[in-house]
Batch of 2 targets.
Target 1
Amino acid sequence: MLKNVHFGPSVLPFLLVLPQIIVTLVFFIWPASQALYQSVLLEDAFGLKTEFVWFRNFEELLSDPLYWDSFKITIVFSFLVAFLSMSFALALAIFSDRVIKGSGAYRTLLIWPYAVAPVTAGALWVFMFNPTLGIVSYALSALGYEWNHQLNGGEAMALVVMASAWKQVAYNFLFFLAGLQSISKSLIEAAAIDGAGPMRRTIDIILPLLSPTTFFLLVINIVYAFFETFGVIHVVTAGGPAGATNILVYKVFSDGFVGLDLGGSAAQSVILMIIVISLTVVQFKYVEKRVAY
Amino acid sequence: MIENRPLLTIFSHIMLILGVVVIAFPIWIMFVAASHPEIRMTQVPLPMLPGGQFFENLDIALNRGMSGMDGNGVGYMMLNSLAMAMMIAVGKIAISLLSAFAIVYFRFPFRMFFFWMIFVTLMLPVEVRILPTYEVVANLGMLDSYWGLSIPLIASATATFMFRQVFLTIPDEMLEAARIDGAGPMRFFWDILIPMSRTNIAALFVILFIYGWNQYLWPLLITSEPEMFTVVMGIKQMLEAAEQAPQWNVIMMTALLAMLPPVCVVIFMQSLFVKGLTETEK
């Protein structure tokens, strides 16, 4: 971690880390500790007096059925996003690994949605599925299905899942393709000599060898669905209808900024922090192992 | 390819083309909508082929804005987004280079403590500390300013880790040689470390530019003056106004404008982009 040859002691290294440390302290560690502190306080509506209430904010939160609904919605949402975008990306990566001509062009055409902002992605999908005008809902109504995500919670969920997964396919595709290309060709050739066709090789050799990549991407996709899809939700459904797409991050925002429930919002932040920390630990433990695989 | 199976290759191509079509379909619809007059966008079914009013819509979106709004367009929001994205990307790279340099090349008290402190930022995304961070920025008087938009986002564990890895692969002989030639630490940093990690800096810049450009929650919280809005916020604002009078041609043109700079970066700097994406995840 430290070079064998390095510079002697001076104040210089302190000055060098100083900018990063200041930003970290002021905008990360201090606010996080404030969130911890506020989560055990109860403030009245005018901010005039605060009372130390131990874990009452947490107790209230955890006994609130709306919070548990939001929890369940977040889990369903993130698994659907992860599953949809990963399976789509995996299929495309396997086909792309197979073709020789044009694989570069396919890659270019598949990766650029990574750069589309969640809000922009949400705007596109909400336009296509607009109940009165949207091109897809028009096609659906021609088939006899009346789409209205503004009223139907299931359809709202489907729409935010599609918009979020669409954006994430690019990322998964790149990592799956890199994973496929790092599989030793001799393994595949040996299987082919033993008479295994493309389908069998994919199931028995390629997929098991891809499992480290798959697991890594699963963690990344869950983090993405938990924390980075705020823009999609905000534009497409704003948590509605009737809380059907009110994921945890959106709830923190709406309870804190719109509802101004400081203690409750801080308690939610603390729970989210615990979730991020555990996901990060899982990710890092796994990255250590990936090398040894 | 192991064996020659023309049918399977054709099938692969067909599936890939289908995949590309599914991925590109929303963008096609957006482009088509951005090229039609307003009146056409209220008639069902909506068009599937481009119309002839692309440049008029471009002018409306950039300079005049949707009718019923403040009449300024989103041109200045594009500049705000650009300023924010550049400040975030440059800021993150600068402070991460400096701290990685300190951590790899110096032995000093609390070195590991600082390292872990930077690491912790990885676990504290904006989303989990929304309100208190807002309060800090408000107390510092940084609301509605470029500083407020960028500085709170520029601490970066991933960038610091990446530069640490890069510096660790630079041979020790470099430092020894530089020292024999009488170079001090900062001279070594500028004239040897920076040039040697040039491609890594460029790759990281591509990723961070996209990250900065696409920020939404943070600008939404700390800006209340319309002149500080970023272009992705402009889309949301227009969608809200669209509930009374939909002007999808202008909204989709704005979405196209908001998408263009980061997408161009990905397409034209593809190898740097892929390098940046895979390196920051290590």
Note: DSSP finds 14 helices and no strands in chain B.
Target 2
Amino acid sequence: MELEEIRVAVLRIEGTNCEDETVKAFRSLGVYAEAVHLKQFYSDMIRDEEQRSLFDYHCIVFPGGFSAGDYVRAGAIFSARVKSVLKRDLEEFIREGYPILGICNGFQVLAELGALPGFDEDKPLADKPEMALGINESNRFECRPTFLKHENGGKCVFTRKIGKGKMVMFPVAHAEGRVIFPRGKEEDYLERLKENDQVVFRYVDERGNYAGYPWNPNGSIYNIAGICNVKGNVFGLMPHPERVFWRYQHPNWLENPESPGDGRAVFESVIEYLREF
Amino acid sequence: MKAKHRYKKVDVPFELYEIDVLNATDDELVAISEDLGLALNLDEMKKIKEYFKKKGRNPYDIELQSIAQAWSEHCCYKSSKCYLREHLFGIEKDYVISAIKEDSGVVEFDEEYAYVVALESHNHPSAIEPYGGAATGIGGILRDVLCMGAQPVALIDPLFFGRLDTPEDRIPKGTKHPLYLLYGVVAGIRDYGNRVGIPTIAGMIFFDDSYLTNCLVNVGCIGIVKKKNVVPSKVGGVGDLFVLAGGATGRDGIHGVTFASAELDESSEEEARGAVQLGNPIMKEPLIHACLEVVEKGLATGMKDLGGGGLSCVIGEMSLASGCGAEVWLDKVPLKEEGMAPWEIWISESQERMMLTVKPEHVDEVLYIFQKWDVPATVIGKATADRILRIYYKGYKVYEMDIDFVVKAVEYCRPYVKRKVRAIDETSPPSNYAKVLLEMLGHPNVASKEWVVRQYDHEVRACTVIKPLQGKINREGHGDCAVIKPTDSWRGIAVTADVNPWMTKIDPFWGTASSFDEMVRNLVAVNSIPHSFADCLNFGNPEKPERMGEFVECVKALGWMAKGFGLPCVSGNVSFYNETPYGAVAPTPTLMGIGIVEDIRKAVTSNFKGKGEVVLVGETLKEFGGSLYCAITGQKSTIVPKTSPRRLKKYVNAMLEAFRRFKIYACHDLSEGGLAIALAEMCIGGGIGCSIDLSGLKGEDYVKLFSESNTRWLVEVENAEEFVRFMAERGVKAYHIGSVEGDELKIRNLLSISVEKLDDAWRNGLVRFTGW
């Protein structure tokens, strides 16, 4: 696919609030990206020129925010709405290998949709959620920089341009980010994730060692910050790569102002994947 | 009900009363004001009687309620206007597009864009219901910025509470413990600000006994707008339709403004709960998108938010501003509950509502945009050519008054007495310098606010380029300003919030001048050019001449500093009646300073980088009035630091020039705790020590270390001697006092403390109360 042909949709409903910076990140790499309201896929009141289909796009992003207020459980309402109107399209989209990214609240939506951990390639949306993003161990919202170690061996289409073992800094900002697997199945799930090369990012300290709070800001099992599905085209993470797209968004960037931001590689990776699609 | 016989139910199929003011005696007029919760005094009631006498009829309840809203202190600044005009307004700068007149100040950012500034108080509601009060404070200030057509890009929250160590049994009846209020207010700001997706990037938290029964919650907001898209807060023209957009109208927030214009007492909780509005950030978030889409398409001729006084104020003020009248169909307003009387609908302060005026031919397009965002929007009236406001409800006319009478309100130049400050200085050196410094670092006013800052999403929108916490990751210190990059250019906006209530409490004039100086110092410390400021003036009861005296002194000082320095005041708010039977708040003129960072790549942060020498800029005198040193040691001084706008300007110019000429690695202003605290903070943020020798400076050691004289900075610079010479050539005092090195803060002959120990004291000062 040519760069100019690539179309990216950042889905929004009331309360999603990171769509502008996410769209901007994609656009600055030369692809077409737009924020699309979920209603544009199904509602009768939307005028023709604003109506959309999922297959108008090659990549879908669930952005950060507090979709519908997240008053029930983070991501629960957004995912319920998506399921009721787009389930079949979304399954086909994933099966065909198109990439889907969920950042922060978007990760929570993907977990609620059953798209992650996504062990079953034939059934990309599980009937019931198989993981949850629980309330942080600190029991409150935290906005802080976190160091992540990239541990994916090449399956995840969003991180292929980041070397295995490389450390990056993406900030987190969430109250519910602790990865939890069903009780009693934790070890089994971790084994499968590792075996399938689905672990993508893990929280580490400034020297690259796995560490507890505040380096692991939420108490996630196995220090997990982000995982992909078994096919590698659905990727969810709590930290925000779009908030470190440029170096000037990093803390202490003035000491090294001209290099690219750490998060840029996520967007570059998926674009490269789509160009070869 | 004391004047029950003066209320006559009107024969209509809804609740409407005629109030017999024409035959009411003076006592009865006062009783009517009390019965109906109007908070109007006898003179004001007589003015109303006079007006209706001429009309030859009695008013309906909705008409009286409407006047009460418009004439409340909160809406019309009747006690403050004349002093503000005399001292503060009218600082001309060609880059100011709109100051004071509208809901927010609008100032040129660059060729294409303007930034928008608003600052307000939400004190009374937060004292009664901290979570909801603070949350709706955020909601309100966002609307003030939005209604200029601007995208909000940053929130700022200066907060003031009683001391956290206040024992339970010292809390007066009807008052909530400061710790409870702190938890509630921070949670309210967090849950609203984070949900609505606007970063909270700056603020301050100050603890003092005077806030025990009156906490102060000030909220500021910055927005960005293309100059061509700025929307005025007035009706576009005759024939335009009023479109009410956003949440439905309910009984929440009735009499909010009249409640905010009186002292609180122990019964306030019972009586005023209903005056606190309920916020809904998930209505606000799409409301912002929808309004901005309408603005971008050029479909709104005027826009204003519904805040204090609800519909009553918004329609009146928008019409008055363009010299027209209005006709309103009140039954079109979407309601939260049935059975609301017309006056309740008219003055309800339900949140998340905006008023737009739209040309009739664009109404369908505007309604479509709101519908797309699932935001209810309804046409509820139209602008007329006469200067009269008429309201219809279910076919009956329930209101007809001249807009000029209602909105062009009363004004008082209230009497005041100036407080005499007797110069006392009984300070002396401490027995143990290190112990004093560690205690200072652990004082909640100085200690790390990380517990608060991290609960706010200060990075959403991804344009916070200098963060509120600066330095080594997970060991950060505080910066002087946060900086945002609101557009695609390298130009940035620096923001700071400052006031020193310990100083204003002793000496309102010099305390305010010092606060202004501090604001400017903070802006300069990040290498930004001071550009404009907003003020939120929080005081006690203006009917008491001593309180009015405090207010007038503050305003005089602000005007003197701002005019002399040449910094325009572009927006502001006055909050009186922050007083209970237990006392008034310290005079609190909160200032929000805005600086322009010409190139964010040239911005400077406060933490030591370990590369340069340490230079102190400025002069230190024995000025301990309101100082942290006095608070910690229990010593006494009334000598509040002095300053002068011209001297400040000279220093600022030299500093800004030095940033261009020298490699400056770090810069920090000296404020609470003086030189000692500034050095400690720079060490903490950098995780690195310094060796300092003060023997080259004149004066006593404890003065050099702890005095809080104005117009001073610390810099870490590559070539210290040359820097000092450069400053001297410009008539600016600067002293090379040491170098950045090691892992201790060493001050020769006085103290030596490891950075780790400083860090511990500073980092635990607040969390020892709040818990982690």
Note: Chain A touches chain B at residues 14-15, 17-18, 20-21, 24, 37, 39, 45-47, 50, 64-66, 68-70, 138, 140-145, 147, 169, 171, 173, 206, 214-215, 240, 242-243, 245, 248-249, 251-255, 257 (CB under 8 Å).
